[in-house]
Amino acid sequence: MWKLKGRSSLGLVTRFVEQFTRPVWAGFFQPGHYTLFIRQVQAELDRRGNPGKLNAAGGAVVVPTSTADEDAQPDYWGLTSLAQDCARTPVADWPALIGVYFDLKARIGNQSEVLDQLAGDWEAARRLLKLRLYPDDYAGRGSVVADFPADGLMAVLVYDLPESIVAVRPGDVDAWKVSEQDLFRIALQNVDQAEAPVDAPIELPDGETLHLLQGSSSFIASHALSLERYVPQHSPFGALVGVPTQHSLCYYPIQDSRAVGVIEGMLPVLRRLSARGPASISDQLYWWRYGRLTHLPSRLEGRQVTFMPPELFVTECLNRLAEPESVA
Q1: CA 296 from centre of chain
Q2: Rg of the chain's alpha carbons, rounded to an integer?
Q3: Residue 13 predicted with pLDDT over 50
Q4: How far apart are CA 289 and CA 219, in angstroms?
Q5: What is the mean pLDDT of the chain?
Q6: How many angstroms separate the CA atoms of 118 and 123, rounded?
Q7: What is the mean pLDDT of residues 1-8?
Q8: Dihedral, CA atoms, 267, 32, 61, 157, nearest 10 degrees?
Q9: Could you report how far apart the first and last alpha carbons of the chain are, in Å?
Q10: Between the chain's N and C termini, which has fewer beta carbons within 10 Å?
């Protein structure tokens, strides 16, 4: 039988239990900090009269819609970015960070009049449309207009408003009478026409250079959907791509067999950037070729990374790179 003596013993047990109860989305927290974060988020919700219900396992606050429409989907206030900000900040500053986050969410929730106006004015709406990448297990996926460019990724149609980014409501699309294909095309064009991201190259252990596009914009990763702007379309092997966060995009044009070594060096970079955040998307590797993204699955087991590429990548890329005429 364990005997708890004082707060330090209780904290030790809390950290021990947390190893088995902490969800995957919160894996970056130090021992004991996930539980503290959830308690502080719940305390802030209580202070505000509980505008939504905390779903700790899903990493979101589920907020009932204010509309009278019984079929309307609830809003989902994701907690991952907030949690990543807290993980990099002294615990004493957490209450202020959490308060600012919910202040912002409250302001976004009060923009229904603006959204109604955009639903009735296609010309005004089209200038604000953009595509924002999320992991495909995004909590609010049932209440957004989205495309799925590859396994693990979801491209959500959003309004890029001056103070916030708000998902386009499915009913707005019905009002515009514009096809989803055209909406996604226009939204991606708006992303491409915005300020170009900064390229901060990373030198990998084997001496190869990995391109890292980054910036404060939440749409940097969305450039993976139009990578032909950075990689020549005629390249028969395409490029290796990673979208660790919404603020970053990694890519490496595949030219010869050196790409095999780049895969080994690129995976740890993606895992590190994704774990650090904020606004994490994926620590997985993708293959871009002819405008399409293909997932190249990998799994981390202890310190061992297992790479499990699909047959198409093996036959159309790896095997061809191994042929003598493909070697520089």
Answers
A1: 17
A2: 22
A3: no
A4: 21
A5: 86
A6: 9
A7: 38
A8: -10
A9: 67
A10: N
Of residues 178 and 109, more confidently modeled: 178
Strands 304-307 and 298-301: antiparallel
Residue type, 234: H
Q: One-letter amino acid identity for 151?
A: D
If phi over 0 gives left and psi between -120 and 50 gives alpha, with beta otherwise, what is residue 182?
A: alpha
> Which residues 6+ apart lie within 8 Å of 92 measured at CB?
none
Q: Could you give phi then psi for residue 246, rounded to 5 degrees? A: -70, -15
pLDDT for the residue 26:
85
Contacts of residue 156, Cβ cutoff 8 Å, sequence gap at least 6: 131, 132, 133, 134, 138, 144, 145, 146, 167
What residue type is assigned to position 7 of the chain? R
CB 137 within 8 A of CB 200: no
Q: What is the predicted pLDDT for the residue at 16?
A: 43
- According to the model, what pLDDT value does residue 47 have? 93
Locate the DSSP E strands across the chain: 53-55, 60-63, 75-78, 129-135, 146-150, 153-160, 165-167, 198-199, 202-203, 209-214, 239-245, 248-253, 285-289, 292-296, 298-301, 304-307
Secondary structure element (H or E) that encloses residue 163, with its range: none
CA–CA dist 248, 242 (Å, integer): 9
Rounded to an integer, what distance in angstroms lies between the CA atom of residue 246 and that of residue 78? 14
> DSSP secondary-structure letter at 141?
G
Listed residue (166, 121, 175) closest to 143, CA to CA: 166
Distance CA 88, CA 28 (A): 10
Please give the biggest Cα pair distance in the chain: 71
Alpha-carbon span 249 to 214, nearest angstrom: 6
Q: How far apart are alpha carbons 324 and 168 in whole angstroms?
A: 50
Tokens of 150: 């590859």
CA atoms within 13 A on the CB side of 37: 32
108-117, 211-220, 238-247, 309-318: least confident range: 108-117
Stronger pLDDT, 113 or 314, i.e. the higher one: 314
Six-digit token string for 311: 């047959």
